[in-house]
Design brief:
193 residues; alpha/beta; Aminopeptidase; two-stranded antiparallel sheet; 8 strands; 21% strand; globular; binds zinc ion
Length: 193
């Protein structure tokens, strides 16, 4: 038996396994609903489509930098359950989680418009909410006992991007320009960290 081989092989193994690629920090963007779960729907425009478009734009726009990797809980019109989503999140152990939704009130035309942010009961979640409201404009921020917030171990917020039954919001949220603008703002929030 070649003694050299016996010595070199384990050394090689140690060197190989201690080599790690530069760790990109992970940020999870959760597009709410999907598949048979349309979320809110007004005039044929659904929440599930809007949030998927915004999430996909965030991932696309974020490709220009190397510090953060965006992982989406869904990148097509499918429906991972809430438990699937939080299991995935807790496995990835991301820096932060942003869950995207769109509001709708019972009225036919909502006088209320604009975004709202729900947080976990933690400073990190509230700090993230403050950053988002600084970027998007002052808005309601409050704690809420929602699965994605309660079960995610990472700092998480749920952002309602606007009211689907407010005509102005609906036009903006369903437009390509609006979806890109919103995505760009999230990318700025993520990268300014
Ligand atoms: Zn929703």
């Amino acid at each position: 038996m070649n003694i050299k081989k016996l010595v070199i092989a384990p050394l090689f193994a140690i060197a190989f396994f201690s080599f790690k690629p530069i760790d990109k920090k992970i940020i999870v963007i959760d597009a709410g609903h999907g598949g048979n779960d349309m979320g809110a729907i007004v005039d044929g425009i659904s929440e599930k489509q809007i949030v998927l478009a915004v999430a996909s734009n965030i991932k696309k726009l974020n490709n220009s930098q190397d510090n953060y990797e965006i992982v989406l809980t869904r990148d097509s019109d499918n429906f991972p359950t809430l438990s699937d989503r939080t299991a995935m999140i807790n496995k990835l152990n991301p820096e932060m989680v942003i869950s995207l939704h769109v509001n709708r009130s019972p009225a036919k035309e909502s006088a209320r418009k604009g975004h709202e942010i729900f947080t976990q009961n933690s400073d990190a979640s509230k700090a993230l909410a403050t950053k988002i409201s600084n970027k998007f404009g002052e808005c309601y921020i409050g704690e809420k006992n929602l699965h994605i917030l309660r079960e995610s171990k990472a700092p998480a917020v749920l952002v309602e991007l606007g009211f689907l039954n407010n005509t102005e919001d609906r036009k903006y949220l369903s437009s390509e320009t609006g979806q890109k603008e919103i995505a760009q703002k999230f990318v700025e929030i993520i990268t300014e960290k």
